[in-house]
Amino acid sequence: MSELFDRVDALVASRSPLPPPAERKRLRTAHGLTLDEVAAALQVRRATVSGWESSTKATEPRGKEREAYARLLKQLAELYPADANTSTPAQDTAVPATFASTPAPAQETQPVSTVPASDATAMTTQHDTRPTPTPESAPAAAPRPARTARPSTTSRRPAARKAAPANTPAGADPRFANGPLAVVDVDADGQVLAYCTGGLVLDVPAKSLPSLVDWTLKEARLGQPKLSGPGKDADPLIVLTPSALERYGLPVALTEEERLAGRIPEGHKVIKQLVRAEWKLTKRGFGPWARIYRPAQGSERACVQLCIPSWNALDTRHWGDAAQLPPAELARVLGVYASRVMTPRGSTAVTGLELVTALHPPTRASEPDADGKRHSEHNPGSLGKDPVDCAPCEAPDGHPLLKDLPRFHVRGPGEKLFEEAYDWARPMTDAECTLRHLVGIDVNMAFAAGANGLTVGLGAPTHVKAPVFDAKLPGSWLVDLSHVDLSRVKVGKDTWAELDASLLPSPFTPKGERPEGPAWYATPTVAYAVELGYEVHPLEAWVRRENGRYLDGWYNRLRDAYLATMADLGVDADLAPDDFLAAMDGYKSRDPELAIVVSAIKATVKGGLGKLRERPRGEGWRPGEPWRALSRPTWRPDIRAAVISRTRINLHRKIVKHAAFTGQYPIAVLSDCVVYAANGPSPLDFLPYRDGKPLPGGFKLGINPGLVKHEGTQDVLWGEEVRERFNAPELNLARYIKDGTVTDVDNGE
Fold first, then answer.
1. Composition of the chain by helix, strand, coil, percent to 5
2. 733 φ/ψ angles, rounded to the nearest 5 degrees
3. Could you give the CA distance from residue 255 to residue 706 in angstroms, rounded to a whole number?
4. Collapsing DSSP states into helix, strand and coil, what is residue 732?
5. Helix H or strand E segment including 37
């Protein structure tokens, strides 16, 4: 009879009722649990748990998994009732017997003092508006906490937390127990509050900006550990809301003159306060991203970074509407970005460049000398601390190396390295016009994928006459590639393919035009000509014999940040093609705040690479004179050119493989987006999947960098109408394929 009862119990459990998906997520985050922790406990994949919580495409567990999941949610519901305050239960709250002997999770935080109670000067109070998961768990943002009775700064520390400082997850650095940053705001009662990551809120006693800087460094316990052994810890970031700007005597918005200057005047009263308190500003002054510091004393740094959203610190092109978010939500967005990329140091472009330096610091401590002292020395694999000159062909117009050129001289391909992304289109064939749809596919994190595994120069270039081409040697090569005929190319070790070259862009020029003579190319471009089956004979080259895979760590960090955030949005890395397309449909609406983080990560890639060849930004510059960026060791146009070259070649290789196998050719290519004509609206209507497997070396659907996603679909008639309306047979339809909106004639910008 007991076996019969067991089967009945199992049958009932297999249909255990579950709360709605949103409630499932609320209960998990309320207890500070990550998707990984729940997945490990239930012995399922992380993506499976994420699917159970998806409000738009929720899946349902079955069998033993459902029974265990229902049990977990039931116990969490007892701890965190839906109509109760979202704060962590007090230590003396009655706990169900099941959890009576279970210690609080490491992320869970009780209201305690941010500094030891013995410090009579410590006036900072900590409010936990909810349990504090790590930023990596990407919890839903906490609501603004209700201003009720404030816990005493001398609250007794719970016995279970004596082993670690307050708010410090196991293994975390206690110096930065409250996270990398805080959003400072003033509430309706006039109380200054610092919203940290994970829902933590601190009272801020500072009455002026200098005292806010002091509080940040001495009491707030904000910052982030270094990313590399020889590197430096990240300085704390303070984000000032408009109400905080008013409290500390700063303008809520910049005047037009201040906006153009990028700073407030040096005579501003707040800057005078900082000077009197012996604080300094960097050369860029007090602008949207201000750095306030005192000269380092030994290894001790005293520096605070300010971010002022209402001064346009968070560019809407990359951060969306982040500047309009409430403080807690903004802290969450910036906190997730900081934990997965790094604490922002300025724009996404600046942060992208700072990230590669943080991963490859220019110097390191030497081994002890005879007296036992260590000295600063070059860190192998880095770009060092001193800038190097580029080759003349790599120099952008106006560079000091070109100051002797005639004033209106225009350099051609034989004088200037011009490695840029694709902007190519062609008229549709009669056969293509009979098809119904134009389908755009977009390469995920294309430029990051182009950087992965790429060998780049680390030092200065060496000039070589009549060199033998070496695909393993980074540099710039003057070579004639006009003989490469795309109508017959190698697509394998000993396999040649016959193609219609008139329907393909050239891989050697951004506009897809066949070169007409010698031109300068980066190593990946020349190597591709050899791969296609043609000999190359460079006339001269600037090569870099000191080289390495400098960008690998940078790529890995940004790839992991992107994949983790997309997984939190329900798009996992191992989805089948149909499931991937379904998961990508409307993924931004599942968590708009995390969608902002995805946008910022992508901008960090492109912006960081762009900074490698930063041009003058005003500064009273004149052609032939140096500009500020040239003083950086990270001003390296050759590295940027190599990444763009490899990205363009990677895309062309896929286009050729696809054409050789299917006979289909692209209509348009713009940077990392390719448009094909197809009979159906989905990428699966023209991508040659067989038994769920893609064409080797061709396009593959997926979220990993280098794989492709659906960019958009329009009717073939739309494409023809647009081109006819603007009298532009080669209008680049890839630029408008996403939503079909064409507001003006295509000018290539």
1. 35, 15, 50
2. -70, -15
3. 43
4. coil
5. helix 35-42
